[in-house]
């Protein structure tokens, strides 16, 4: 057994405490039940307003991926990840999705791939993230801007010595 078999699926997908996770598309029946969510993490089955920390999209056609790609990435947190999952040969389902196809779509949308993962014997996933050099610009354009830090008011009391 390899490392993928021993590493929990939640960890392989990068789901951390407090994350908002959206799972959509042709989701395998037992997928959500197999996620051992960390404290505060929540899974949604419908696309919701951003920012989404981890988006997991199951698809078997390039046409569907291209049609939804801009909408999905617009809801993603600049530091978030989008997993595009496609059926393997074991699924016995016709597909025109391959890792190379996902990379080309991602690159055209300003994203890069940085990890691959076996979801289960019938599905594989490729993680896309926003290029690091573009994250600050995307955070700035969000409503409200995600990079803005609010200054806390100073509490009266002791002064540091």
Keywords, please?
alpha/beta; 161 residues
Share of residues in helices:
25-40%
Structural class by sheet pairing and helices? alpha/beta
Oligomer: single chain
Give the CA-based shape: globular
Query: From the alpha-carbon coordinates, what is the Rg to the nearest angstrom?
Result: 18 Å
Report mean pLDDT, rounded to a whole number: 83
Low-confidence stretches: 147-155
Reported for the largest beta sheet, the result is: 6 strands, mixed
Q: Between the first and last Cα atoms, what is the distance in angstroms?
A: 57 Å
Tell me the fraction of residues in β-strands, as a range.
25-35%
The total count of strands amounts to 6
Order of helices and strands: HHEHEEHEHEEH
Q: What is shown here, in short?
A:
With 161 residues, the protein is of the alpha/beta class. The chain has 6 helices and 6 strands; from the N terminus they run H-H-E-H-E-E-H-E-H-E-E-H. The relative contact order is 0.15.
Can you give a write-up of this model?
There is one protein chain. This protein has 161 residues and is of the alpha/beta class. The protein is 26% helix and 29% strand. The chain has six helices and six strands, in the order ααβαββαβαββα. It has a six-stranded mixed beta sheet. The longest helix has 13 residues, at 62-74. The radius of gyration is 18 Å and the shape is globular. The N and C termini lie far apart (57 Å).
Write the layout of secondary structure elements.
Elements: H1 3-6, H2 9-12, E1 20-25, H3 31-34, E2 42-44, E3 52-58, H4 62-74, E4 76-87, H5 99-108, E5 111-120, E6 123-130, H6 135-141
Parallel strand pairs: 1-2, 1-3, 3-4
Antiparallel strand pairs: 4-6, 5-6
